[in-house]
Amino acid sequence: EKLKDFGYRAFHEMTAGAKALAMAFYGSASKLSYIAECGGGSREALSEIQRFPEDYDAAGVWGFDGYKTLMHFGQLWVYAATHQEPGRVIPPEKYPAIHQAVLDQCDAKVDGIKDGAIEDPPRCHFDPKVLLCKGADGPTCLTAAQVDAVRAIYSPVTNPRTKKAVYSSLYPGSELGWAQLGGAQPFPNAVEFLRWVVFADPSWDYKNRPPNFDSDLALASQPEKTVINADNPDIKKFIARGGKLLIVEGWADAAIAPGGAVRYYTEARAKSGNSKSVRDSVRLFMVPGMGHCPGVNGAENYDVDAFKILQDWKQNGKAPEELIATHYKAGKEVGKRLVCAYPKVAVYRGAGAAEDPANFSCKMPK
User: Fold this and answer.
1) How far apart are CA 153 and CA 174, in angstroms?
2) Which residue among 156, 205, 227, 237 is least enclosed by CB atoms within 10 Å?
3) Mean per-residue pLDDT, 75-88
């Protein structure tokens, strides 16, 4: 038991040590403690509120990584989809064409305006067959094998024997991030995870022995391996002591399939009874167009001052119903976007600039 929880317990002990140092320096204990993490660090925040609910008063999680074992199989799923046979490989120069075709079909489908982002990707039912090459192959069309590969990427990770979906797919709108998963090699973190954690075999090579989404997933699901997850939806103790959990995820995240955040939010709410206290203690915001973690760098990105929202929520007692994401292109701010508390979506009021949050309102999707 001690070995099983060693990593997370070590972080818990560091938290206790930091509080002790603050007590020694300031002469009084801290009134409130916050933790806010993204990606792999998000597991630290999640594990804290799940395993040691007394450590923090509020937690912020973005780039949701609670289902680590499944997440890595999700990364390998994209590589498998594009490398089952040579003809399925999608050259990087084709990703913009796929992305644009998705926007052409679904950009204004939910929010009522073409603004370069898909407001509710699960409602975008895009068939890549529209890009099937009618003549010679080229950067703006897909071969029949590549059409099948794209369809597989949009499909959830599925056990080939039971046909059961086990983890989230990537969603329409994420295409510009596929290169890191469907390139010449699989995503390196996923490879290392299988080599050292699942197989404990330094000689394992994905080229000679490709991952199996039935037996290998079963092996990765053994208790001594799933302990690295932070997926326990029972956070009733954290909520009971007034804890607040803010989850911010990008619908265009290609590194970690965003459906994991929706799944955890739904399960945590259900586990705690969906009472008013739960609704006031857990919030999820799905940001259209945002990739892995908020930020200002890259060709296109969205930044959210989620930590300030977390502070205002805990200290002023009002659960956030919406937030403002700042839109950046090539490091320069180009506008702002209204983001609604899930499952609501931002809908265009019918007039004004697309990058002005005042021109949108939060509504339940129809």
Assistant:
1) 10
2) 205
3) 94
